[in-house]
Amino acid sequence: MPPFTAGLFVSASLVASALVTAGGWNPAAAGHGQAATAGAERLTADTPRTTTAGNGFIAPSGWSIVVRGPATILEAPEGGSRLALIDVQGADAEAAVTAAWAAYPPQTRWPLKVTNDLPDRDGWSRRRQMSYQTSPNERRDVAAFALYADGQWTVVIYDMAQDVGEKRGAQVSLVFDRLLPKGYTRETFAGKKAHPLDAARIAALGAFVEAGRKATGVPGVSVGLVQDGKTVFAGGFGVRELGTSTPVDADSLYMIASNTKALTTLLLARLVDQHKITWDTPVTTLLPSFRLGDEATTRQVLVKHLICACTGLPRQDFEWLFEFKDLTPERAVAALGSMQPTSKFGEMFQYSNPLAGAAGFIGGHVLFPDLDLGTAYDRAMQEQVLTPLGMTSTTFDYARALAGNHAAAHASDVDGHPAVAAMAINYSIIPVRPAGAAWSNVTDMLKYVQMELAQGNLPGGVRYVAKAPLLERRVPQVPTGKDSTYGMGLSVDTTYGVSVVHHGGDMIGFHSDMIWLPDHNVGAVILTNGDPGWLIRGGFRRKLLEVLFDGRPEADAQLAAGAKTYAEQLAAERKLLTVPAEPALAGTLAARYSNAALGEIAVSRNGAATIFDFGEWKSEVGSRTNPDGSVSFLTTEPGLIGFEFVVVKGQTPSLILRDAQHEYRFEPR
């Protein structure tokens, strides 16, 4: 099943990126491993602790902690989902992991799926990650991470239910963010002055992007840099589309996906500045028909809650990814009435695209109450954001974007080769477009970043928006780790001692980031047209800091390792998958399936291939027999690899599709 990120949507291989960049994973079902609760301490606040060898970390509030021999075991409040930090001796990483599993004996043993080596980082060397093959009906993710420092190994076992892992992902990041060897101090750029981005430093950034592009197979990357109010670089690397020689440049349009959210909250900031709303205005006073879950929840929702990822509303993206052909903004907003938060407001980070969509539509409705929600938003964005900022190329009109200088979407095929991606599913975001449907380019996005750095002023000193509502969007609403927070459509990261404001964006074949350092008057935009472009854009943030502050050269090795891990993860998944689908298994399927929320699947054959047609888009599927004997069918279209339909045995089998916190059962018709 393709995981989702704060950048909107990415293909299944993002898992590899998450492992490399955060050291984390995505989690599992209750009842595994020895009971960690007996004699455990329940924490009432985020608490600094150490492993048995003295390595520091932060234990999250609400979790239980217990020490058993060399193992320090953290258990999530839901029970049965754990992080185990185990200090052991061993000749190598494999021996260390074997010793760690012996100290943390689970009731289930999972086959090893793939092993990846990682570069040195944060005082740890000889880093290695091991991913295990769980069965989909376990709804569990399991991994081990071996880290070496001071003559000893620390192994982290990640053993969690998928719903808990998604819900508590920020708390998992909290543990990894400060898991450091005893006595180690992370590099900091606090108090340093940024170097001018001269020709040599710009060339170093360009070389990083070009090397990353080649390592990942991403066809094209466009980059822009600003410093002290001036554009110091704007250009492109690579091509618009595989098999062509037309280069990308600063004017090439890309889908910017969730970077759209910052533009949407800029619209809201303008409305605050114009005294039409406040951040604390109850939403039902602006749109009386608005509902979220039950009445008690609805009454709590203020304007800021629509876009803060802090309401506890979990991802529920499948419903617009599969059924968007006839979806209108009105219906998308109304659907929120059936969605219920799974944590309290402000308690933890949970990212909701439909709720962010409602934020923009309600902003447009405030200005143009007589128009339908989509038209009102489009007009409001044009008049309040795009035209004043001079963003003349930025558009929500796909036909306009695709008719001109634009980058085509790319992704790996099922065998790991770069290919043109399935574009049809990228139309799914249009009905919730304030969350991620804008197309833009480096030229336009730099104008936006310049305005942010100028704290609401346009070139020449003209005031565009008041400073207070603009900056309120950066104020932490919920933590996403120890050194990172989410505001309103913007993230702030202080990992290396300087404040970095940014937001990522991900749709099929498009991955981007916009970045600025408000205390150093430096900003950047990076747009990519291929999976795994998230590796390039994520590494670029670190590389920019290295170039500006003469930091340790880590970004290049991390990106190279990320690209290698991505390829190895794809290859490991491919070995488990039969394409075309096993005829005997495919032959048991009904010709048509339906689900009330996600619509219909038409099953057909094209030669040896089995095709799942969802109406809005379709894909050949492969088959896989899981360790527990269950059977899955997985989509294989480039960019759509990994939507997993698990067979429920019967005379005519049903199919189950899951995200981390929801389950959709397709019945035969």
TrEMBL record:
UniProt-listed Pfam families: Beta-lactamase
InterPro entries linked to this entry: AmpC-like, Beta-lactam-related, Beta-lactam/transpept-like
Signal peptide positions (record): 1-22
Keyword list, A-Z: Signal
Record bears the keyword Signal: yes
Occurrences of domain Beta-lactamase-related (ranges): 208-533
Protein name (record): FmtA-like protein
Native organism: Luteitalea pratensis
Gene responsible for this protein: flp_3
